[in-house]
Amino acid sequence: CPSDVQENVLQRVLQLPVVSSTCETLQRTYTSTKEAHPLMASVCEVYERGVQGAGALAMWGMEPVVRKLEPQFAVANNLACRGLDHLEEKIPALQYPVDK
Fold it and tell me: In terms of residue numbers, what domain contains 75?
């Protein structure tokens, strides 16, 4: 990862064409399923609200821990970015969408 900009390894992984195209396909399938099945849509909406609430609560509870461990996270992120650089170099298929 470049030293002038702190990259997040998760963001980099999500930006890989193979990952982003898979996520887009899953999102389209999820949305079309919700649209086609009203009962499924109501179940999904309840689930989505629950996940959002749980996520907000988890972030609020974890904030002090995250602040204390920030230096360790930075080191782990840096190592993971270097590993991802190596994978991208060795596996060119990561740069192509799933359909290719």
Answer: 38-99
Of 92, 99, 87, 68, the residue nearest 9 (C-alpha): 87
- Give the angle subtended at the CA of 83 by the CAs of 3 and 71, to the nearest 5°: 50
pLDDT at 3: 46
Condensed to tens digits (0 to 9), the pLDDT of residues 19-34 reads 988 989 988 998 888 8
Is pLDDT of 88 > 60? yes
List the Cα angle 41/45/50 in 5-degree steps. Answer: 150
- Identify whether residues 28 and 54 lie together within a single domain: no
94 CB-near residues (< 8 Å, 6+ apart):
16, 17, 18, 19, 87, 88
Give the closest residue to 1 by CA, choosing from 66, 65, 86: 86
* Domains held by the chain: number: 2
Q: Is the full-model pTM beyond 0.70?
A: no
